[in-house]
Automatic annotation (TrEMBL):
This is Uncharacterized protein.
Amino acid sequence: MAKEFEILKQTCEEESIEQTTWGGRQHFLRWKTPTTFCNWDAADLDYDTTLSFADHVGFRSGTCYEYPVYDVVNQQPLKLRERPLIAMECTVIDERYMGLGSGEKALEVFLGLKRTCQQFNGDLTLLWHNSRLIEVEERRLYEANPCSLKGNHEMKL
């Protein structure tokens, strides 16, 4: 992990890409406690945003706030922070998960999560895969959802 992260930072530097905070998530939400936290911390990443449910949106960490990570084996705090992932677009859209498609029902789920996070002055961390911006309906949902830069919260069907 540390070696791959160094390659990424070096490549960004060569391309004049500046970034002060670095983090990420485990692909397919693959996670092993406490190993993953310790690997990310040892690589000197600032945050992780993996902790989520694949099959249903919600608050797996029980919160919508970033929090410090703790190494339960060595019983010490880590520098790493966790930014809980509240929702992935595929969880809402795909038939194998919630199966709501990319219309009004899906938008209502995202807006409901937004309202809950706002109620507690928290953060709505949303994962939207770039491969889900190809289909017109999914792109419209992205543009209407509460985390998008264009988020007008209206579906233009």
